[in-house]
Amino acid sequence: MKALALLLVASLATLASGAPFDKSGIADWTKTPAPSTEPTFAPPVVKRMRLANGMVLLVSENHALPIVSMRLVVPNAGSALDPKGKAGVAAFTADLLDEGAAGLTAIQIAEEQDKLGAGIGVFASVDSAGVSVSTLTKTLEPTIDLVAKIVTQPTFDTKDFDRVKGDRLTALELRRDRPREVAGIMFSSLLYGLDSPYGHPGSGFRESFKDISLADLQAFYKDRWDPSR
Predict the structure, then answer these.
(1) What is the DSSP string of the chain?
(2) What confidence tens digit (pLDDT) does each residue in 184-203 have?
């Protein structure tokens, strides 16, 4: 207890002698400081170009940190484009892309990301799908190579399909216990209609999801994940 008291006293003494607010330049803390000059903001300059395959590329440079953040957006590949009667196909397709690609398994893809210091996540929203990427500048090129494999050479292996489908079916079974998610589905259904492109849940319905096949995902990928789009 004595040692604790001594440590506390020493800490208070250190705080009193070198507190952060001592460097603020404010002499009297009982008075409201005068307003400072308004800061200026220079918006980033975005460069726009088009790749040979038709994709539009937007680049905003900021070299303050040795990192790169990227997002590949695929319009018209989101849940609003789910085939009729097969809600959840868009999200399921996106979920399966990084489960295996170009001869790499899901574990090997994850290990490769760790080696590169990168994070790659495939997503599907309402109107679009895509890939979010963060990596180091020194590993940018191999990270782009890995992303290209995931996007252009997904394996769509039967075992991966069965495993991920089981996980998603379990999530649908448990959805009734997640009030916030249920409320969101009910709200969208009231606005747009439960069977409409914008009103149905992107994860699908428990009853109809069981009928989604691997061929459904492959067809959606071929039709929607196209660079020309």
Answers:
(1) -HHHHHHHHHHHHHHHHS-GGGGS--S-TTSPPPP-PPPP--PPPEEEEE-TTS-EEEEE--TTSSEEEEEEEEET-SGGGPPTT-TTHHHHHHHHHTTEETTEEHHHHHHHHHHHT-EEEEEE-SSEEEEEEEEEGGGHHHHHHHHHHHHH-B---HHHHHHHHHHHHHHHHHGGG-HHHHHHHHHHHHHH-TTSTTTS-TT--HHHHTT--HHHHHHHHHHHS-TT-
(2) 999 999 999 999 999 999 99
pLDDT digits (tens, 9 = 90+) for 100-135: 999 999 999 999 999 999 999 999 999 999 999 999
For 87, the token pair is: 């809600």
Encoded tokens for 137: 């500048």
The predicted-structure confidence for 49-101, as pLDDT tens digits, reads as follows 998 888 899 999 999 999 999 999 999 999 999 999 999 999 999 999 999 99
